Amino acid sequence: MLGLDDYRQLIDLDRPFRPAAEPAAPGRSGELIARLRARDREHLRSLLTVRAPGPLPHTEAAVLDALLGGERARRPAVDAAALPTVDGTRVIWLGDITTLRVDAVVNAANSALLGCFRPSHRCVDNVIHAAAGPRLRADCHTIMSAQGGPEPTGAAKVTRGYHLPARYVLHTVGPIVDGVLGGAHREALASSYRQCLDLAEAVGDIRSVAFCAVSTGLFGFPKAAAARIALTTTADWLAEHPGVLDRVVFDVFSPDDLAVYQEEL
Predict the structure, then answer these.
(1) Cα(232)–Cα(190) distance, rounded to whole angstroms?
(2) Per-residue pLDDT, 79
(3) Options 3.40.220.10, 3.10.450.10, 3.30.2350.10, 3.40.50.150; which CATH number does 4-264 get?
(4) Domain regions of the chain by residue span
(5) How far is the first Cα of the chain from the last one, in angstroms, to the nearest whole number?
(6) What integer pLDDT is reported at residue 81 of this predicted model?
(7) pLDDT in tens, 161-184
């Protein structure tokens, strides 16, 4: 499995993202979408979802940067540092992870680590890639090509966040539960959380991390058990690494998910 030092320079991880164009004003969205040969915004989203990884031509990259940058500027961002904590560090928050201003967000990826190729699919993998832009998939492809095989369950990789408010994305492959929940599933999920936290520490300038509810969607992990593992694993890690992180956010998708986390806490 490829370690951080093996791919850090390959994807210019430490270079701040500089878009190829300034954010566009709201009135220019239609013009920019047309220049990208899309009928409308949803069609463009679909085209980007199914697009193979790789760099865009410079002209198209500038147009897309203007469009995505303008959309980000108009999307209210939530500062993780301002959210109330449950214990001084950890936060349980109901909201859109792509609007969270935090050092790193966690993406629940599949073993190919290239995002979701299903247009309009509402999985967090698709949502994060759509907001960040196609450079995210290109970086993941660079990493996976160097690795030469699929990402193991319970492991993690990191890329820049591009058009997200978050500077980094931590990509982890959680376990798939198809049947009875077992000890191996539990350990694999705990590993996903530990690997993301270890990687955040290794990057060197990450002080806040926001987790999605890894494996609880299509991967079928029972939500209460997953929340218990998330809370316990992060509590243990923070106790073993005092002062490394200022905020750990558990981003939940629905009021029911929020209630699960509150109950498990």
Answers:
(1) 9
(2) 97
(3) 3.40.220.10
(4) 4-264
(5) 34
(6) 96
(7) 999 999 999 999 999 999 999 999
**Three-state SS across the chain?**
CCCHHHHCCCCCCCCCCCCCCCCCCHHHHHHHHHHCCCCCHHHHHHHHHHCCCCCCCHHHHHHHHHHHHHHHHHCCCEEHHHCCCCCCCEEEEECCHHHEECCEEEEECCCCCCCCCCCCCCCHHHHHHHHHCCHHHHHHHHHHHHHCCCCCCCCEEEEECCCCCCCEEEEECCCCCCCCCCHHHHHHHHHHHHHHHHHHHHHCCCCEEEECCCCCCCCCCCHHHHHHHHHHHHHHHHHHCCCCCCEEEEEECCHHHHHHHHHHC
Tokens of 163: 């058009």
Q: Give the pLDDT confidence of 57-81 residue by residue, as tens digits.
A: 999 999 999 999 999 999 999 999 9
User: What whole-number distance in Å separates Cα of residue 35 and Cα of residue 98?
Assistant: 25
Answer yes or no: is pLDDT of 51 > 90: yes
Which pair of tokens denotes residue 88? 């001084």
Tokens 């994807």: give the residue: 11
**For residue 229, what are the β-bridge partners?**
none
Q: Is residue 209 scored above 90 in pLDDT? A: yes
